[in-house]
Amino acid sequence: MRKVRFEDLGTREYQDTWDYQEQLFGENVNAKLAARRAEVAGEPFELHTQDHLLFVEHPHVYTLGKSGKPENLLIDEAGLKEVNATYLPINRGGDITYHGFGQLVAYPIFDLEHYFTDIHKFLRYLEEAIILTLADYGISAGRIDGLTGVWIEPDNMDRARKICAMGIRCSRWVTMHGLALNVNTDLKYFEYIVPCGIDDKAVTSMQAELGHEVSIEEVKAKVKFHIAQLFSIAFEE
After folding, report:
1. Which end of the chain, C or N, has fewer beta carbons within 10 A?
2. Taking the CA of residue 23 as centre, how many other CA atoms within 13 Å lie in the half-sphere pointing to its CB?
3. What spatial distance separates the first Cα and last Cα of the chain, rounded to whole Å?
4. CB count in 10 Å sphere of residue 92
């Protein structure tokens, strides 16, 4: 069973967390590059990579993925200051999304060569962890073909609404970035963007679906449990 180091970072600025992700990601990628160079040179080598799962809540921030369109941010710099939010173009896949208080953000920094070398399967596993977590609360959720993430009423295009967004980066089969589950998120912040570049679908949260606030600590425990089950891993604190 693969050991994964788990850290709950609490509330942390996006840039600080991104820098920390890059550090952990870089350590794994560099270890694999060094092992590859030694292998090609016929030298002895020992490859060790350490997987991580980070949980965090970010203060209000909009992030734009590599394939995103800046015009999907619908407010200017003055507007960002007014709603106490920041904006960052970043190096994950996907378009624009929002992170903020009451949202569980999970960053798995996994070496997929210890699991399976299939990015699509990796994303489906992350989606499944969220689908199972929502089912624990009696919320039925699923997928929409061609749209990464987790949706409520995915079979009804007029009512489908996204509850969890995803976007990752992968190099040498090492991943970073991850998912954002709206637990008690202030949904008004999604009005200032075209979420994930999709302009005809709504966004929702567990609180909105259930009609009451949800313990984010309880949600964290359930997401962590389902990720461990799906990936057959054990966590180290």
Report:
1. C
2. 7
3. 16
4. 22
Tokens of 106: 């999970």
Consecutive H or E run containing 176: strand 174-182
Residue count of the chain: 237
What is the mean pLDDT of each successive set of 10 residues along the chain, which is 237 residues long?
A: 96 98 97 91 89 98 92 95 96 91 98 96 98 98 94 94 95 97 97 78 95 98 98 94
Instruction: State how far the Cα of 170 lies from the Cα of 211, in Å rounded to an integer.
Output: 37
| Rg of the chain in Å (alpha carbons) | 18
Residue 141 burial (CB count, 10 A): 24
Q: Where are the domains of the chain?
A: 2-13+50-236
Candidate list 64, 196, 223, 227, residue with the active-site label? 196
CATH 3.30.930.10 fits 2-13+50-236, yes or no: yes
Query: How far apart are the C-alpha atoms of 107 and 156, rounded to whole Å?
Result: 30
How crowded is the C-beta side of 166, counted as CA atoms within 13 Å? 22
Rounded distance between C-alpha atoms, residue 189 and residue 151, angstroms: 18
Q: Which residues of 191-202 are buried (b: 16+ CB within 10 A; e: fewer)?
A: ebbbbbbbeebb
